[in-house]
């Protein structure tokens, strides 16, 4: 199941709007494909290659074109996931090349339309699909894949704007539609058990404008559960409040957490608020 099930209509609206904006930005001579993207190892063309490949891949997976693994298991840990995702990204960027910005825009737009068609109204967001690029035996709910496609679009839209010298920002409401689902899905997979050791910790994560969830860390594992879930009976140590944009900036290593806290985009409170500033260090970065 998905800990935080998203609103599919909202996700479709954000995905359609942001993918169209990205395609428009790539058209003509305004987006030289060989220009370096600030903070990344990719050029503009490679970023477009990555994102269009994500759309195409997710559309096929959502439609069930990739059969789930027999065991339906999870990945073998955060390190495996990070290595597998990095390799998959490298392969996709290397195999898809564009000659012009118009070609990149057309392919990206077509991939987004294909994904939107696959995410049709009425689709079962809890149905699991095989996601081998996240590690051996990995599966993920359709709702999480939909939310991931939105966060990919928002973050790389921000990257593209920076590369083209445009005003770069991530809208909080657009991010809040997807971030709670993505964080509650991915953070248990990226949990750094070696760093945490045998500590027992509980965090409630509140994305402003989105649904809250709880991360519980114990016995070398991390699990997500809905906030206020009955039967847990254990209070959290720290409550972390973030805007949708701040969550994406810090989660994708675009800005440090201290900057979000200094500008009001994030703050922590609760029994042990001092855990807030180090929260992000408990998880591996992809």
Automatic annotation (TrEMBL):
InterPro entries assigned: DinB/YfiT-like, Maleyloyr_isom, MDMPI_metal-binding
SUPFAM superfamilies membership: DinB/YfiT-like putative metalloenzymes
GO molecular function: metal ion binding
Residues covered by the Mycothiol-dependent maleylpyruvate isomerase metal-binding domain: 17-160
Record Pfam families: MDMPI_N
Listed name of the protein: Mycothiol-dependent maleylpyruvate isomerase metal-binding domain-containing protein
